[in-house]
């Protein structure tokens, strides 16, 4: 792996944001579209795939295991697979880059195939816990060796036939759930996964679109292997987790009025928007419709005065990736925002509670870091002092969150490295520029 050079940038106010933009295809859905297409017999077409580095890691891994994956001149992708059970032995280690989703889902997939794969990743990914998938995957008969503390590099040696199991998950994680369902695809009989709390259901929706026998029964999801997947035409909605940065930017910068077209509004992903509305944000989901089994709308967001909220722990799963930017919104609210039940944020691309507490304090926000949440005291809509130098900690969402904070600060905010943004939203700065230029015009 070659680490890319640090990309230090500063962000300062440039007026209001106005206009209509799109965001990259949903990252979660894009990973699944590539994987399931690569497991179907025949050729699938995918429109709107995420152009981020994380999804590129998934595509490279599926190619290394025998799928043909190509981008056409119109930007749509074609993926040809040979069927569940037909994965080929990869010749080299699978480099997962920064992507936890690629790693965990593919560990599940490999676990029920007669192949052996080594998974490696960058410094951030190599610190993240993999036992949450390794332990249940050993129960189906796979041999899994992790590095110290259950981290990468890891070796997965799949087993055929794998044992169908009922898995009671310990953490509410869509990645763990999906890894076990993917393993179930090539396992004879019924694999059951029981969730402690509902998590994003893109795998279930898309597996059903591809023709798998999958059902939900309360907290249990059951899938019948050895599945035959049929190729599909998938249209990936815009990523609500990418749109979140623009929605908060429009909410906090006076005079803003932004529309983000074609954004996924799956209820398991829209917790941030519910929280912002509870804080007084002006957000409308316009023109709601459905694309490839997922609900979609155009998001219109106008500047509004925000007030602090107390977010209950149950709110966490539906906005798990959005806490960094929620804390930025809270920094501009009137009053105090309190969050708890967020221990999972410490094992994302960075320790997001520590990264946000440190960064917010550096730009003049009063913030208290608890064991599993932050308390943020807001400015009441006033610009932040700014002026700090933020460490993005190889975490795209930390980098983008502080870039947005810089748009309403007295002194510019410097971010040590914006390069991780490439993993999920390569056009982040260009998209912001277009909204700021439209307003200036
Ligand atoms: C994801 C699930 C979430 C989320 C991640 C993407 C997925 O992780 O944080 O960015 O695509 O399944 P957990 O399932 O570990 O919470």
TrEMBL record:
Alphabetized CDD domains for the sequence: EPSP_synthase
Keywords in alphabetical order: Amino-acid biosynthesis, Aromatic amino acid biosynthesis, Cytoplasm, Transferase
Active site: 321
Top-level lineage group: Bacteria
Membrane spanning stretches: none
Subcellular location: Cytoplasm
Pathway the protein contributes to: Metabolic intermediate biosynthesis; chorismate biosynthesis; chorismate from D-erythrose 4-phosphate and phosphoenolpyruvate: step 6/7
Alphabetized InterPro entries for the sequence: Enolpyruvate_Tfrase_dom (IPR001986), Enolpyruvate_Tfrase_sf (IPR036968), EPSP_synthase (IPR006264), EPSP_synthase_CS (IPR023193), RNA3'P_cycl/enolpyr_Trfase_a/b (IPR013792)
Signal peptide: none
Domain Enolpyruvate transferase: 14-432
Gene Ontology MF terms: 3-phosphoshikimate 1-carboxyvinyltransferase activity
Catalytic reactions on record: 3-phosphoshikimate + phosphoenolpyruvate = 5-O-(1-carboxyvinyl)-3-phosphoshikimate + phosphate
EC main group: transferase
One Pfam family cited in the UniProt record for this chain: EPSP_synthase
Record family assignment: Belongs to the EPSP synthase family.
Quaternary structure note: Monomer.
Protein name, per record: 3-phosphoshikimate 1-carboxyvinyltransferase
Annotated organism of origin: Allosphingosinicella ginsenosidimutans
Gene from which the chain derives: aroA
């Amino acid at each position: 792996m070659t680490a890319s050079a640090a990309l230090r940038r500063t962000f300062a106010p440039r007026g209001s944001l106005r206009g209509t933009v799109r965001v990259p295809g949903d990252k979660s859905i894009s990973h699944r579209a590539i994987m399931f297409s690569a497991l179907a017999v025949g050729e699938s077409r995918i429109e709107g795939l995420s152009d981020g580095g994380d999804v590129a890691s998934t595509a490279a891994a599926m190619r290394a295991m025998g799928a043909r994956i190509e981008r056409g001149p119109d930007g749509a992708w074609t993926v040809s697979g040979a069927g569940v059970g037909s994965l080929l032995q990869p010749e080299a280690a699978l480099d997962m880059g920064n992507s936890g989703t690629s790693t965990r889902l593919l560990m599940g997939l490999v676990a029920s195939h007669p192949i052996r794969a080594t998974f490696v990743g960058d410094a951030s990914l190599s610190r993240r816990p993999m036992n949450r998938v390794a332990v249940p995957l050993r129960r189906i008969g796979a041999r899994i060796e992790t590095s110290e503390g259950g981290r990468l590099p890891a070796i997965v040696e799949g087993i055929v036939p794998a044992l169908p199991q009922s898995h009671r998950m310990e953490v509410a994680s869509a990645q763990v759930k999906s890894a076990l369902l993917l393993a179930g695809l090539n396992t004879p009989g019924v694999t059951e996964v029981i969730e402690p709390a509902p998590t994003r259901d893109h795998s279930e929706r898309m597996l059903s679109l591809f023709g798998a026998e999958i059902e939900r029964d309360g907290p249990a999801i059951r899938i019948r292997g050895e599945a035959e997947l049929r190729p599909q035409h998938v249209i990936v909605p815009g990523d609500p987790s990418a749109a979140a940065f623009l929605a908060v930017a429009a909410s906090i910068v006076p005079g803003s009025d932004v529309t983000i077209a074609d954004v996924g509004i799956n209820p398991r992903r829209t917790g941030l928007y519910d929280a912002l509305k509870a804080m007084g944000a002006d957000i409308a989901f316009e023109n709601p419709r459905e694309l490839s089994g997922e609900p979609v709308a155009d998001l219109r967001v106008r500047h509004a005065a925000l007030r602090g909220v107390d977010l209950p722990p149950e709110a966490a799963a539906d906005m798990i990736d959005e806490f960094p930017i929620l804390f930025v919104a809270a920094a501009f609210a009137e009053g105090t925002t309190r969050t708890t039940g967020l221990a999972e944020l410490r094992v994302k691309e960075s320790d997001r509670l520590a990264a946000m507490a440190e960064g917010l304090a550096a730009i003049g926000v009063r913030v208290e870091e608890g064991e599993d949440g932050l308390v943020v005291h807001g400015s009441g809509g006033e610009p932040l002092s700014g002026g700090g130098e933020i460490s993005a900690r190889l975490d795209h969402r930390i980098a983008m969150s502080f870039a947005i904070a810089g748009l309403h600060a007295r002194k510019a905010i410097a971010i040590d490295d914006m390069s991780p943004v490439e993993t999920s939203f390569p056009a982040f700065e260009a998209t912001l520029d277009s909204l700021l230029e439209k307003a200036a015009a």
